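Q: What changes when phenylalanine is included in the input?
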Amino acid sequence: MTQSTRDGFTSSFGVLLATLGSAVGLGNIWKFPSLTGSNGGAGFLLVYLLATLLVGLPLMMVETMLGRAARANAVTVFDRVTQQKGWKIIGWMGFCAALLITAFYSEVAGWVYAYIFKAATGSIATTDPKVAQEVFGKLVSDPISSLVWQWVVLGLTGSIIMMGVSKGIEAVARKLMPLLFILLVILCIRSLTLPGAMAGLEFLFKPDLSKITPAVILTALGLAFFKLSLGMGTMMTYGSYFREDQNIPATTTRVMFADLSVSLLAGMAIFPAVFAFGFAPAAGPSLVFMTIPAVFTSMPGGVIFMTTFFVLTAVASVGAILSLLEVPVAILSERYSMGRKKAAALTVLAILLMGIPAALSQSTMADVKLFGMNAFDLFDFLSSNILLPVGGILICLFVGWVYGLPQLQKQLSNDGALKNTALIKIVFFLVRFIAPLSIAIILLHGLKVI
Ligand code: PHE
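A: The predicted holo structure follows.
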């Protein structure tokens, strides 16, 4: 595909919203709270914040920059920006990560879809942990509904992606984000005014440093990557649709802050309620599906709010899934001169197959384990805790040691139009030394290699 015919985003605000659409998703509403809960609360949050600021943000800038500089998919980027052959592995790892993530992510999205109907019919309107656990348990342990909901998600997102970049992604991302934000704020207010809410805030903001182990640090780092869709070519692919005059450092910083605020809001909506109603903070993946309905149940108009909330969360998951699918779809369609439709169909088919063990991991295939993990957990671990960090190291090393400062200057300043030399120098220093070194140490410690 030539540069001029490459589809792209039409306005700079559209770019911001679409990138935000990739970042904000189940990572904020589901993964962030469940990991924060099961890894001890505030200490985990602190590491996550550091990882986001010192590693995530600079990586997001350079990843987006590479995409825009080369205007290509995550593999072809490296054909265009360097003569050295090996770096393409980054794109292929991203290809695998996208499939692995979507295989379990689409399952969680399926639960959200199912909860829309449960919310509307009032069947999850309870503040009783036992009842809530039962409803959730029934859904995930039913193989047929697990599969069908996942297929609904994949069918829907697959069809959107076939319609193309600007029309499909931008339109969906644009409309509903602000609404979700408002609903989270309402949820927070209710949760924070529940009797006993303080214990939840303490859990979230008063760090107990003894809970921070190497494995916890690796999980927090993995979450930082997952949250900002980093280390696997999503931001490269999205960057390739960025406008020439887009201010990359400013846009990525805004996305990072917006994403972080959504996560924090979700945390402040959930943890006070966890303590107020007596849920277990370490409940894991079920945490959100039990606590959120409980908060809504304890306010007037709960059923309507609750239903709207799950609809909006479903929409947020669509934006993220589209950006996941876009990685393999762009690689397949551009490298194998395949039509977009065919590339999308192949990608969805692959995920549909890989998704089966993930969907059945709490029912039919619950006993099928590798390294002590079922398929769902394994896909999550392999992608977030291994592929994304390794991809991150490689991207940093590439920009820091091969691509170099002069080119980075040129790209991130839009050829000198933006006066941000000092900032770029800091970014360069971080990606050349700090980020790759710290990711490597965290990875090796977290995996108990050293
Ligand atoms: N960032 C998305 C979320 O938080 C998930 C995602 C990960 C999307 C990796 C694209 C790539 O939900």
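Observations recorded in class: The chain has a mean pLDDT of 94.
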